[in-house]
Amino acid sequence: MPTRLLSPQEALDALYESQHAAQRTTYRAFYSSELGGIVTDPALFVVQLDDHMLHRGHGVFDTAMLVNGHLYQLDQHLHRFLASAAKANIPLPPGMTVEQMRRTILETTAASCKLNGHVRYWLSAGRGGFGLSGNECLGSAFYCVVYTQEVPDSKLDEYLRGWRVKTSPVPLKPPFFTGIKSNNYLPNALNLMDAEAEGFDQGVFVDAEGNVSEGPNMNVACLLADGTLVVPPFDHSLNGITVQRMMELLPAAIEEGMEGIKRVEQRHISLAEAKAATEVFFISSSMLIMPVVQWDTQLIADGTAGIVALQIRVMLQNDTKPRPASDQHTEVPYGFMTGMEEA
Ligand SMILES: Cc1ncc(COP(=O)(O)O)c(C=O)c1O
Fold first, then answer.
1. Is 181 a residue of the active site?
2. In terms of CB atoms within 10 Å, which of 206, 237, 264, 322 comes out highest?
3. Among 3.20.20.140, 3.40.50.2000, 3.30.70.1350, 3.30.470.10, what is the CATH number of 8-150?
4. Least confident stretch, 72-76, 150-154, 227-231
């Protein structure tokens, strides 16, 4: 069959006709510095092919959770986002200040008209051709998307069953790159797909010294028999915002009587020591806490979700709930919608 040559109208029609179900029902709002504004029609959530983030992976991203009309830990995520951008040698788009970028994230969230969901944003080296160096780019680009997630009924109580994980055969990125939340997630995607292919829920990266690093998009923690919760340091893993919040909140929670845990320690932990832990769990902003019940062929303790993981899950869940004068929450200015300029 000959390849079709499309007219501009046919190409535009195809953008509409080719929308998949999740796109139509869960993609809510999109800002593009290339478009110069926000669109809410998911057919138009488009990034151009000459964007270096796309054809060279020269981009960084971050996310934040939208909870009851507030972005949880937006400023903490933004801080890491800007640090990633600096390491990736990506400046802010021409004329865009950090304050403007933050406002754009909040206004894109407002345009979604959703109270709960996720916001993800990218800084790209920008457009300018198909070369390698970001120096050919006309200016960096900023994108932001708001989406909601349908959790199937079968997954609602997944945290009670826990996950089975596999030591990943995929090599861990070198330390400089594990510390940048960049668009180069090929090892991370391969980690997960390798685990899924063998019936596991996730893979765990291990570093060259045999120490546990992290999951493909989550940090990991191991509770030892003496009540010490060990979190691998961030020299071979991403400095997760949620695991840092957990470490900030735990001392008071332990003081107030959280059961089964005595202290938190950040240090390297070998694969063998981790597998012998009484509890293992993953931590991330998208799912907070997920207990691990089996690692390779070995059950973790008795192979059921641990009580420390479940208590920490509740602690973090409570922390995501907006409350007055919280430095962890930013109210979405839904009212600003009325002040937005029409296209
Ligand atoms: C590689 C990696 N590690 C850890 C995390 C957890 O980080 P956070 O708690 O900021 O979501 C993520 C999630 O974004 C990730 O992609």
1. yes
2. 237
3. 3.30.470.10
4. 150-154
